Amino acid sequence: MSTSVEKEMVLPENEVENIELLSSIEDADGGVTVEMKEPMDSKLFASMLGSSLLYWIQQKKRGVWIKLPIEFSNLVEPTVKEGFRYHHAESDYLMLVKWIPETSDTLPANASHRVGIGAFVMNDKGEVLVVQERTGIFKGTNVWKLPTGTVEEGEDICVAAIREVKEETGVDTEFVEVLAFRQSHQSFFQKSDLFFVCMLRPHSFEIQKQDSEIEAAQWMRAEDYVAQPFNQKHEIFKNMAGICLTKSKKNYTGFSKMSSTTSSGKRAYMYFNNRDFEPS
Amino acid sequence: MSTSVEKEMVLPENEVENIELLSSIEDADGGVTVEMKEPMDSKLFASMLGSSLLYWIQQKKRGVWIKLPIEFSNLVEPTVKEGFRYHHAESDYLMLVKWIPETSDTLPANASHRVGIGAFVMNDKGEVLVVQERTGIFKGTNVWKLPTGTVEEGEDICVAAIREVKEETGVDTEFVEVLAFRQSHQSFFQKSDLFFVCMLRPHSFEIQKQDSEIEAAQWMRAEDYVAQPFNQKHEIFKNMAGICLTKSKKNYTGFSKMSSTTSSGKRAYMYFNNRDFEPS
């Protein structure tokens, strides 16, 4: 898509004139998105943005989105000067938005949570797979912890758990259940964390640890894992560890997964108690 | 904190000179954060940033964070030119970061998920609280849906559910359980969604709907809610509705909440099956 397009616009004097505006794509909510693909001089951009805004206002557009790749950081200032606010950023672009109507803004919220997993993997000798990390808050503490990690962009929780165990210890596993989860706030900047403790069933038992991040890895008696002073001292850890031990010994029902399709046709996983409800 | 500070720096010629650098705060991971609080000319900022970077490199700093309030959007371009990438943005600021060491970047990931709730509220006549919305994908469809919404920054899931029901229908409730949750991807930009279906117990029954967003609200026989063609046709909705109905009729155990403290002393909620595990 080229950067500019000619449109007819009715000027204040009621004259119709062809004006060069920024190319945009319309969305389903009555808004438009501009995605800059080529560099542009800041002054020229400011002028075209001003004209485009007048046109979009005449067309009664609602949300105007401008996606600026990091290579075009010279265009951030002129966009802000036209009344746009930041919406979100990734490493290589910044998304800005302006809400045109006078009614309340109904723009989608930014992502607010990071999602992490902890994997509880137990073999048939009652031993749980644990690691000691080279970095992070447990570094140098001698605490044995479950393999943990952050889910990657677009990654499912059940897939992330299997991946983290494989990366950190070399052990192959299969997802069984979500045993519990925890939500905490202001863990980094103003964002929140959701952490899911997942039970996985091992399909291999030989450990090949990831040297760059893992100091040591082993199979450890579950009771010894739970009894560690750190786990006994910190309430959430104590309870999470206790849930894992209970799961290994008796009947604890967590949330199993089921692949499903959303009303828009995308694949999604549902997690629920499948002992008490049988899906159709 | 003033914008600049004088530091001693060893120059390439081995001379020590006092140089004016950007003020920064050190973090626990060997990095520094600069938070711009006053406007600055772009060229002056570029020069001070360049000197500051040399200093931080000499000091063997790791991650360098620069927080730019939207009022200082003129400083984005010079920051990017010094090799910084975007990390995240909120409506009123942009955070940029540069990783100095040659080893792999261990910076925290950006938030990847938006978190939403759906509230299943049932009275003692077997009726569920449902709404029809004025906006969004269900607008004009005549589908009766559960009250839903997005959790706000720093808000707990169990609190968000109660708030949304109160706002949309005026009904007071108490959190009971998370019945199930669903994870989907690419729902907005490259981000993901986690949606928690929560069961709430009503403490009031008179409905006062939120006129701006809600077309209508009522108590509806649970079987009629489940039997709606939309709910029957779409797999996830069918199963979520089925879980709600099962909960209302027999023994379905979801995840109850428990307030707890993290190892860093912050309050957090754990959600787990408290029928099969009794926390200590």
SSE layout and pairing:
2 copies of one chain form a homodimer.
Chain A (H helix, E strand, L loop, with lengths): L3 E7 L5 E7 L2 E2 L5 E4 L6 H17 L4 E7 L6 H6 L3 E6 L2 E7 L13 E9 L5 E7 L14 E3 L6 H13 L3 E16 L2 E12 L11 E8 H6 L1 H5 L1 H15 L6 E6 L5 E6 L8
Parallel strand pairs in A: 4-5, 8-12
Antiparallel strand pairs in A: 1-2, 3-4, 5-7, 6-7, 8-10, 9-13, 11-12, 14-15
Compact overview of the structure:
Two copies of one chain form a homodimer. Chain A has helices at 42-58, 76-81, 157-169, 222-227, 229-233, 235-249, and strands at residues 4-10, 16-22, 25-26, 32-35, 63-69, 85-90, 93-99, 113-121, 127-133, 148-150, 173-188, 191-202, 214-221, 256-261, 267-272.
Account of the protein in words:
Chains A, B: InterPro entries: NUDIX_hydrolase-like_dom_sf, Nudix_hydrolase6-like, NUDIX_hydrolase_CS, NUDIX_hydrolase_dom, Pre-Nudix. Chains A, B: GO terms for molecular function: ADP-ribose diphosphatase activity; metal ion binding; NAD binding; NADH pyrophosphatase activity. The structure is a homodimer of 280-residue chains. Chain A is of the alpha+beta class. Helices cover 22% and strands 38% of the residues of chain A. Chain A is built from six helices and 15 strands. Chain A has a five-stranded mixed sheet with strand order 3-4-5-7-6. The first copy, chain A, has a four-stranded mixed sheet with strand order 10-8-12-11, sandwiched between helices. The longest helix of chain A is centred in the N-terminal third of the chain and has 17 residues. The radius of gyration of chain A is 26 Å and the shape is elongated. Chains A and B meet through α2, β6, β7, β8 and β11 of A and α2, β6, β7, β8 and β11 of B. β15 of chain A pairs antiparallel with β11 of chain B.
